[in-house]
Amino acid sequence: MDILLVASAFNSLTQRVFAELGDRGHTVRVELALGDEPLREAVRRTTPDLVIAPMLKTAIPADIWSAHVCLIVHPGPVGDRGPSSLDWAVHTGAAEWGVTVLQAAAEMDGGDVWASARCDVPAAIGKSDLYRNEVSDAALEAVLLAVERFASGTYVPRPQDTGPAGAAKDTATGTAEGTAVGTAAVRAGAVRTRPYFGQSLRRVDWASDPTETVVRKLRGADSQPGVLDVLLEEEWYLHGGHPEDTLRGKPGELLATRSGAICRATVDGAVWIPELRARRKAGGPATFKLPAVMALGDRMPVLPEADVPWELPAGRRTWSDIRYREEGPVGFLSFAFAGGAMSTGQCRRLLRAYEFARTRPATVLVLGGGRDFFSNGIQLNVIEGSADPARESWDNINAMDDLVEALLTTTDRLLVSALGGNAAAGGAMLALAADEVWCRAGAVLNPHYRLMGLYGSEYWTYTLPRRVGNEEAERLTRRALPVTAARAREIGLVDVVIDSTPQGFGSAVARHASRLASAPGTQRRVSEKKAARERDEAVAPLSSYREAELAEMRETFFDPGAPYHALRSAFVRKTKPSSTPDHLRAGVSRRG
Fold first, then answer.
1. H helix or E strand, kind and range, residue 236
2. Would you state the pLDDT for residue 162?
3. Listed residue (378, 379, 372) closest to 440, CA to CA
4. Which segments of the chain have a pLDDT < 70?
5. Residue range 322-505+525-558, CATH number
6. Model pTM score
7. Relative to the CA of 471, which of 56, 479, 511, 534 has its CA 20 to 30 Å away?
8. pLDDT value for 187
9. Which residues are 3's β-sheet partners?
């Protein structure tokens, strides 16, 4: 079928739906929701069989949905309505949730249901993590079923329950009773309209909220919109929250820093806050998230740096973005950076952690393995917020290259990159530096740099062609479109696709790694690595790839007129584009 995706942004879910439908032989194009008239023109131009909106913040015009079947992906169970579905799921502590694919109609979220799927809501994860993983899995399941039903030409979507029990407006406050009533109504399919989840509901009362409540509020707004608060007599949005088990102080007081994050006291403990965003001033430029210490800058009081070892003792309940552990002959070096981006300092710390891991006797070393982002490359927010973005860009890319070089020159053990979540640009190329790449089935890869106006580095001109061949490498980087895990396996970009839940990915990786470490051929593979590296070095030294790539990158970074600078600023500040990019309008087709 010819399918048009309409979305407010080409976000993670839209990318996944786009790529998965393309894998299944459909012709798929994207139109960003930038106004009613451009959308009408896109429909006239593409004459789609079906319109799907994976992520839409505005309504589709009535003249479009009355003439075409338009399917809306709503991140809530059947009967759930409102603009803040996931916020309420996290706020009320729901143990399970769902996704509904419904037909666009006059009433927002009120159309007939084509498909739905349930999903778990694991404890202690943020809203954005939930959206990119469990919700994304459920959304894809529901979308594929809806497309199949539509293609059959015989399926009749079912109306939502609009009887008396379903007509109640939800004014739940997050109490256990409210949660139970809400869950029962949702399971019954009754309509339940939840209000917009504003800052008045997110506000942290540092004088009375226990740590558990503070963490839940912070995680419910981790990526967007953040929790508006007053800190050091100024207004900030707080992004991300993690409990701390040892530090204590006066509620609301700043206690310590760690790797750019700040620790703040609660009434019964403390929480770590990794990022802050200044409140936008009237008429001022858009603000963006930065590491908390960097955001506060000169306002920061003198605080101790509360370092923790790479190997945290069992039972510690604290935040650290890099950790190491061992299970028999397997070492696990995990890292979780906000948004998947890696700043100069984070790259250097990860390299130090890797050097520590190299001193351990593990036969197999697993990199990553978490349930969310693997890596998205250099930290554009930190670059944009620095005093000299060109210099910071240069330092950041060199720090990334140092890390990749360390992986590529490791010949005394097998390295595995384990991608539980998405990877893009230099982060995708970082993964390729390992001997094997394992990927969760729900992950999406974007192995390209072009959309940020960059040539790319991270030794991609060495690692990408040797995995997929020169022709496919050129195709991936030129087209700049997302790739599913299944497709990545077909072309050799990844070696193993693990079909697991997001929560179960780490355990699945551990089992695979244990089998790899004890496999009869593993020691032989390790012994052959040094000779293979020497053969490649004789053909073309690693330094030659780095020098050629960095020559291109340096020219871009230090040219004030290079598109990279405007593209970076627009990306960081989430500037709405003026039109849908051509490569999305061209899309993918059954002809590839």
1. strand 234-239
2. 54
3. 372
4. 162-189, 590-592
5. 3.90.226.10
6. 0.94
7. 534
8. 46
9. 28, 50
